[in-house]
Specification:
The chain is an alpha+beta fold. It is built from ten helices and eight strands. Helix content is 41%, strand content 14%.
Length: 271
């Protein structure tokens, strides 16, 4: 392949990357460290200029593709993923006391948020004053400050989590029965009042397992690993996690439209 063909192929692939980048052209250029004049030259039909190797590597890393794909040397965007450094670990609480969740939620505004919690999700949980966290000590607060006017929220979790709460077993062994009853009643009310903007699906945890993760629109996936998040920003991998979430929804034994009825029933059974 001569330089003109290589440049023409690169222009086409770079245009695809720009069109699909979740945070827009400006953020893409900042992440790559490229100015707009250089981008214009790379895309100009009158130029056969190609980026230097280091710039190619940064474009590949930011966009989650391979250098070979950018140069039309292979057809699969992810290639062997040798240069797609799209995974990192971020602390749940930063050194200054802040959390990356605020930034992630803001970036995903207007998109759907898909959430598999480690225990009760905070949007349907409450913790009365002087009472321990109703989620059994969970520290995940993925949905804090979420406005259901700005985004749809879909949650998938094992039915066993709420059944344990009703039976006061597992994380809630020995918990105050009145607190468990109030928690389930509150949860039912939130699901009833906010459907369909908020949709909670319950699957059978004895048949299906999932690690806790959140898909923040098209921007990133965050897997909860205790006091930190494993963050994935490759577009292909984000789509893969979205499909995994959809599989959990298809396996639900209690649908989002009737989950409040089950929760009210469980609340009535607390002893």
């Amino acid at each position: 392949m001569d330089r003109r063909d290589l440049s023409a192929g690169f222009k086409e692939r770079l245009a695809q990357v720009l069109a699909s980048h979740p945070t827009g052209k400006g953020q893409f250029l900042r992440d790559v460290g490229m100015d707009r004049s250089a981008l214009s030259q790379f895309l100009s039909p009158d130029s056969d200029r190609l980026p230097r190797a280091e710039t190619l590597r940064r474009i590949a890393r930011v966009s989650g593709v391979s250098v070979d794909w950018l140069l039309c040397l292979e057809n699969a965007p992810e290639g062997r993923q040798e240069v797609a450094e799209s995974v990192q670990i971020e602390k749940a609480v930063q050194a200054d006391g802040s959390t990356p969740l605020d930034k992630w939620r803001s970036a995903a505004s207007g998109f759907k948020l898909r959430y598999v919690p480690s225990t009760l999700p905070d949007i349907v949980s409450f913790s009365p004053e002087n009472v321990p966290d109703a989620r059994g000590g969970g520290v995940e607060n993925v949905l804090g400050q979420v406005s259901l006017d700005d985004m749809d929220v879909e949650i998938a979790m094992p039915a066993q989590t709420v059944r344990d709460l009703s039976a006061r077993t597992g994380l809630w062994r020995g918990a105050d029965p009145e607190q468990c009853r109030e928690q389930l009643t509150y949860m039912a009310g939130v699901c009833r009042q906010n459907y369909p903007a908020l949709r909670l699906h319950l699957y059978d945890g004895t048949q299906t397992f999932s690690a806790p993760f959140t898909v923040f629109g098209k921007q990133r996936v965050a897997l909860y690993i205790g006091d930190a998040y494993l963050v994935i920003s490759s577009p292909d991998q984000i789509r893969g996690f979205a499909k995994q979430f959809d599989r959990l929804v298809r396996r639900a034994i209690i649908g989002a439209d009737v989950v409040h009825e089950m929760l009210d029933d469980l609340a009535a059974r607390v002893r």
